[in-house]
Amino acid sequence: MGLFDPFVKSDPSVVGIDIGSHAVKVVEISRRGGRPEVVNYGVGPLPPDAIVDGEVMDSEVVVECINDLLHDRGIRARNVASAVSGRSVIVKRITMESMTDDEAAEAIYWEAEQHVPYGIDEVTLDFEVLGPAEDEKMEVLLVAAKRETVEMHTAMLRDAGLVPYVVDVDSFAVQNAFEANYESEEGEQILLLNVGASVTNVNLLCDGAPLLTRDLSVAGNAFVDEVQRTLAVDREQALGLVASDDEADRNRVAPVLETVGQDLLLGVERSLSYLKGSAGSAEVSRAILSGGGALLGGLQPYLSTHLGIPVDVANPLRQLACDASLFGEGESERVGASLMVAVGLALR
Length: 348
Prior knowledge:
The protein is of the alpha/beta class. It contains ten helices and 16 strands.
């Protein structure tokens, strides 16, 4: 599924590019040998005011960061897969009359008018038929994004000299990376939590299809901001404290984790409660935590304790072939969670 998916000349390498509020992350995957292999990756920091709440404030700065990152890492592939998320993106499971794919492609615009709070000419649409439903109906996953957001996103990539191969949705990229690296049992419900700097993507999966997709505004920046305020430190110090493995540092930020963690937990629980109310009772077996926020000291055990399920930090490289020179000892495990979206995109 892709909101923007043009025909481009075949290229053995695709670069997944995750443009977040805190940093740009790139992963290059080659298919020359048949099996996907991670051949390059890189992370380039962005200034705090370049992207605010998912909105690009200074495209020139972002383009410069992309160009510098690709140059520094020696990445020459031009075909890129990227993603959008946040308030301009809507993902819904809907029920339609059973019909062929061609008929559904025409009917989806009328259906979207019932579910999307924007004019139909203001959005880019995509859909996927999930399977049959009761009474000769079928379940469909509807995805819509504001056309202006997608066009600005692709224009920024072109300004960087790149070819937008696919524009996807962050949650689906996370799902793609998960399915390439983890097994799941039939009927098992798995919660994917991707904690970025300004947005947390929530995706509840069952048998390869999302039961629920939500974006929450409580994310990594909320933890950093609260550490700054509570401990009276600057942003650089706050960033160091929230990511520290030192026990003394973790004890200092523990009250902040409890305060902001409650807000994040409440958003997740409300999402799951909505699903239970609309689709019958359901038990989530485990959660996979990804994004830069996954490295926040104490967040993993905090969520596991309060959700009452195992929570594992994601490693989207665990089942992929990797160039042996790319990562030092233990490095793939340390950086993997923050590359979840970029890996999922590059696998497209």
